[in-house]
Automatic annotation (TrEMBL):
<protein>
    <recommendedName>
        <fullName>Cytochrome P450</fullName>
    </recommendedName>
</protein>
<dbReference type="GO" id="GO:0004497">
    <property type="term" value="F:monooxygenase activity"/>
</dbReference>
<dbReference type="InterPro" id="IPR001128">
    <property type="entry name" value="Cyt_P450"/>
</dbReference>
<dbReference type="InterPro" id="IPR002397">
    <property type="entry name" value="Cyt_P450_B"/>
</dbReference>
<comment type="similarity">
    <text>Belongs to the cytochrome P450 family.</text>
</comment>
<dbReference type="GO" id="GO:0016705">
    <property type="term" value="F:oxidoreductase activity, acting on paired donors, with incorporation or reduction of molecular oxygen"/>
</dbReference>
<keyword id="KW-0560">Oxidoreductase</keyword>
<feature type="compositionally biased region" description="Polar residues">
    <location>
        <begin position="1"/>
        <end position="15"/>
    </location>
</feature>
<dbReference type="Pfam" id="PF00067">
    <property type="entry name" value="p450"/>
</dbReference>
<keyword id="KW-0349">Heme</keyword>
<keyword id="KW-0479">Metal-binding</keyword>
<keyword id="KW-0503">Monooxygenase</keyword>
<keyword id="KW-0408">Iron</keyword>
<dbReference type="GO" id="GO:0005506">
    <property type="term" value="F:iron ion binding"/>
</dbReference>
<dbReference type="InterPro" id="IPR036396">
    <property type="entry name" value="Cyt_P450_sf"/>
</dbReference>
<feature type="region of interest" description="Disordered">
    <location>
        <begin position="1"/>
        <end position="39"/>
    </location>
</feature>
<dbReference type="GO" id="GO:0020037">
    <property type="term" value="F:heme binding"/>
</dbReference>
Length: 421
């Protein structure tokens, strides 16, 4: 199997940045199999390094686990300033708007997060388990009926989280595919066009959700969006723009990341670690721990960072380096999850790994709200695949797999698989 590199190689060496071990960010060599080799050198030699970016500005890149984890929770690193007018454009990162929850700081962020967090508690997510199981079973039934070569991306990885998020928001099934196209475009990094395609998709999502909110207000149903509307109308807690923004944020974050993580994880097992696939087939009780290791090991982000730059609101000392106020900062989650100071033999996929404090979902105020739901979808999907298709394998192990180009995530276009004789 040939792995196509989704992120264009960056060969330019930094000038005057004090970072001779890397190049222009985003670095070449990143894939679903792991972050660019440059991160290992940076962790060892310059764990806090100033690097040039494809956007034309320099940014501080943080690569060690303890530093990334601590700075993820540091209120002196501002997402709001990174999204404000005149903020430095860091190339290779995702464009967000100031009103999104991922773009807020302090009390504003805490208020909005508190209002929506109740929808994603472990208890609430567990109540969704039967529904997620039903959706998964239906998709796998259809897969079994088709037989032959099946595209696992379009058969399972995309429709499972898309359907779950759609039902969570009360989106009609016939509209889900349009949602998928907008969410894909929104997750695209488009530095040359100034993010125009991403912003256009954001506008389409917003327009749709405005109409959906109006429909849910007139005819409320048993879904999360109806609940949030009722809370806002009764208690004046969520404004109309906040409802709209939360809706499309949930679609992008709750659908796209889960779809990519699931597809990439299955690819890693089938293509690179068939022995570990067989171990899951033999004992499904290993799956929850396996999901945690897949989240740590399988690289979701095409830039190896969270994709969201921050701005230092004041001088910040990290080790023997001072990050000056106003400078852009990037936190390399994929590098942190391969730090040998925290993870034994970090480049090895070990589905039985016991100590696994990965930060695939982030950390601090901006950790992923949907982490419980994402974990559950991964567990149910893997359990269903290993139980019903124990001899699942790539249709053509030597074929070159197609990837979307320019997305914030490593995104497979298709993953052809077969099973049986």
């Amino acid at each position: 199997m040939t792995i196509t590199q989704e992120t264009a190689p960056q060969e330019t060496e930094p000038q005057g940045t004090g970072c001779p071990v890397a190049g222009t960010f985003p670095f070449s060599g990143s894939s679903y199999q792991g972050p660019s080799p440059a991160y290992g050198r940076l962790r060892a030699e310059q764990p806090v390094a100033k690097v040039p970016t494809a956007g034309g500005v320099d940014a501080w890149l943080v690569t060690r686990y303890e530093d990334v984890r601590r700075l993820s929770a540091d209120p002196r690193l501002s997402r709001a300033q990174a999204c404000g007018e005149g903020a430095p454009r860091v190339g290779g990162t995702m464009h967000t708007t100031p009103e999104m929850i991922i773009s807020l700081d302090g009390a504003e962020h805490a208020r909005l997060r508190k209002l929506v967090a109740g929808a994603f508690t472990m208890r609430r997510v567990e109540r969704m388990r039967d529904n997620v199981q039903r959706v998964t079973d239906e998709l796998l039934d259809d897969m079994a009926a088709k037989g032959g070569v099946v595209d696992l991306v379009q058969q399972l990885a995309v429709p499972l989280p898309l359907t779950v998020i759609g039902e969570l928001l009360g989106v009609p099934a016939q509209d889900l595919r349009e949602f998928e196209q907008w969410a894909r475009a929104f997750a695209t990094v488009d530095d040359r066009a100034g993010g125009e395609a991403s912003l256009h998709a954001l506008g389409k999502l917003s327009e749709y959700i405005v109409g959906l909110i109006a429909e849910k207000r007139a005819n409320p149903t048993d879904d999360m969006l109806s609940e949030l509307i009722a809370a806002r109308d009764d208690d004046d807690r969520l404004s109309e723009p906040e409802l709209v923004t939360f809706g499309f944020t949930l679609i992008g974050a709750g659908f796209d990341t889960t779809a990519n993580q699931l597809a990439n994880s299955v690819l890693a097992l089938l293509a690179d670690h068939p022995d570990q696939w067989r171990a899951l087939v033999e004992d499904s009780t290993r799956i929850p721990r396996a999901v945690e290791e897949l989240l740590r090991h399988v690289n979701l982000f095409a830039t190896d960072t969270s994709g969201f730059p921050r701005i230092a609101a004041e001088d910040i000392e990290v080790g023997d380096v001072t990050i000056p106020k106003g400078d852009a900062v990037l936190l390399a989650l994929a590098s942190a999850n391969r730090d040998p100071e925290v993870f034994a033999d970090p480049d090895r996929l070990d589905l039985a790994r016991e100590r696994n404090p990965h930060i695939a979902f982030g950390h601090g105020m901006h950790y992923c709200l949907g982490k419980h739901l994402g974990r559950m979808e991964m567990e149910i999907a893997l359990e269903g695949l290993t139980r019903r298709f124990p001899d699942l394998r790539l249709a053509d192990p030597d074929a070159e797999l197609p990837w979307h180009v320019g997305e914030i995530n490593h995104t497979l276009t298709s993953l052809p698989v077969v099973w049986g004789a």
